Automatic annotation (TrEMBL):
Cited CDD domains: LbH_XAT
InterPro entries linked to this entry: Hexapep, Hexapep_transf_CS, Trans_hexapeptide_repeat, Trimer_LpxA-like_sf
UniProt xrefs under SUPFAM superfamilies: Trimeric LpxA-like enzymes
Name of the protein this chain belongs to: Vat family streptogramin A O-acetyltransferase
Record family assignment: Belongs to the transferase hexapeptide repeat family.
Keyword Lyase found: no
Signal peptide range: none
Keywords of the record: Acyltransferase, Antibiotic resistance, Repeat, Transferase
Name of the gene encoding the protein in the UniProt record: vat
Top-level taxon in the UniProt lineage: Bacteria
Biological-process GO terms, alphabetical: response to antibiotic
Keyword Hydrolase in annotation: no
Length: 214
């Protein structure tokens, strides 16, 4: 039997880990089933504190897929952190008042990178920073303390500041088949039946067999 995906703490004995889709809804934040946040320093329900400069009037969304693993200290920088950049200075005079608000930029004068999107089955290590408008593909692993400044293709391991590709997790044929399988979209009965195959040492024939059973 699968854990209860509607509970904040699916395992009451491990209250440092929570299913963040069960936090109170937040505008412009979408989180998929079974995605968890782990935090040993703060109650994990403080996940929203890790989404910075996210303002409703900008309209950018944070979209996180299913079965993602998000470690302590991960930070999402949203578009509200951006400053106007075409002038001689990027200093935000307008936010301090005193008459300087006369140079308040319009929305179209601010850099806007769009939505931040994490695919499914993404693993973000401790203290990873995701910059605005980034798309992280399905099955990606991001090493601890990395800063992600560019989009990441599916099933790639990246690390560093800025994060750079280290290697692909699988060959191209396998990645194509995994993206076709979309195991994260299968129902709980399918997952229960094939759980051991999903976590065991990878085998191409097993993967092809799973595709035939979809």
């Amino acid at each position: 039997m699968a854990p209860d995906k509607t509970k904040l703490f699916p395992n009451e004995n491990i209250r440092t880990v929570c299913y963040i889709q069960n936090l109170p809804p937040r505008p412009n934040v979408d989180i998929g089933d079974y995605t968890y946040y782990s935090d040993n320093s703060n109650p994990p329900e403080h996940f929203y504190d890790r989404i910075l400069h996210h303002y409703d009037f900008l309209g950018d969304r944070l979209v996180i897929g299913k079965f993602c693993a998000i470690a302590e200290g991960v930070t999402f920088i949203m578009n509200g952190a951006n400053h106007r950049m075409e002038g001689m200075t990027t200093y935000p005079f307008n936010i301090f008042g005193g008459g300087w608000e006369k140079v308040t930029p319009t929305l179209d004068q601010l850099p806007f990178k769009g939505n931040t999107v994490l695919g499914n089955d993404v693993w973000l290590g401790q203290n990873v920073t995701i910059m605005p408008g980034i798309t992280v593909g399905d099955g990606v692993i991001v090493a601890s303390n990395s800063t992600v400044t560019r989009n990441i293709e599916p099933y790639v391991i990246v690390g560093g500041n800025p994060a750079k590709p280290i290697k692909k997790r699988f060959d191209d044929e396998t990645i194509e088949l995994l993206l076709e399988l979309k195991w994260w979209d299968q129902d709980e009965e399918w997952l229960d039946t094939h759980l051991e195959q999903l976590v065991s040492t990878y085998d191409l024939q097993i993967l092809k067999g799973l595709l035939n059973k979809k």
